[in-house]
Design goal:
Layout (H helix, E strand, L loop, with lengths): L7 H19 L6 H7 L4 H7 L3 H10 L15 H18 L1 H10 L5 H7 L1 H15 L8 H22 L5 H16 L3
Helix pairs in contact: 1-2, 1-4, 4-6, 4-7, 5-8, 5-9, 5-10, 6-9, 8-9
């Protein structure tokens, strides 16, 4: 049987998708590098050419969680609407990746600094989006960075609650309520 050679980016994406599916089906602790190699039709030694460990695979998955934000940075919309759109996108990503987020929150204490930095990359993207939204606002009680950190903290706390409680939410309703709360906390008008 002839093996199909894939370019490294395709193979990496395939490995990540297979690992994600295995983590979702069996849980992170029960999945080994051998399982991931077998499911991806790679010898374990070949798998190690792409990732040094299962932890590295999980961190790669976590660092790619940044939601699509293109529509949120539109100028001219009211602050509350812009926040609602952004928070709804964030909650949708959290729902779609709840198993990965639960894994991250449970594994966080064991990560080294480089691992924590990689895992938090998506949070930095979210923070920058909040900063961009608040930067244009003139009537804030807080500086734009403080308002962004305040908003990020509230959203992350809710995501943490969702990840551990496995509660189902309506992202649109939750986003609307949270955006209204944030605006009351930061807007001077």
């Amino acid at each position: 049987m002839t093996r199909i050679r894939k370019n490294p980016q395709e193979r990496t994406a395939e490995i990540l998708q297979i690992a994600r599916n295995l983590f979702d089906m069996f849980g992170y602790q029960r999945v080994s590098m051998a399982d991931i190699g077998e499911a991806s039709s790679l010898a374990r030694s070949s798998l190690y050419e792409y990732f040094a460990s299962k932890e590295e695979i999980a961190l790669s998955l976590l660092s790619n969680l940044a939601p699509p934000f293109e529509a949120n940075a539109i100028h001219g919309k009211k602050l509350e609407k812009r926040l609602t759109n952004l928070i709804q996108d964030i909650f949708q990503v959290a729902i779609e990746n709840s198993n990965l987020l639960a894994l991250f929150y449970s594994a966080y204490p064991g990560l080294d600094e480089a691992g924590r930095n990689k895992a938090f990359e998506w949070q930095r993207v979210v923070l920058n989006e909040f900063l961009q939204i608040f930067h244009d606002e003139k009537k804030l009680r807080l500086s734009a960075p403080k308002a962004a950190y305040f908003s990020l903290g509230l959203v992350l706390q809710r995501i943490n609650d969702m990840a551990f409680s496995k509660a189902t939410i309506n992202p649109a309703e939750e986003a609307e309520q949270m955006a209204a709360f944030i605006v009351k906390g930061v807007d001077r008008s």
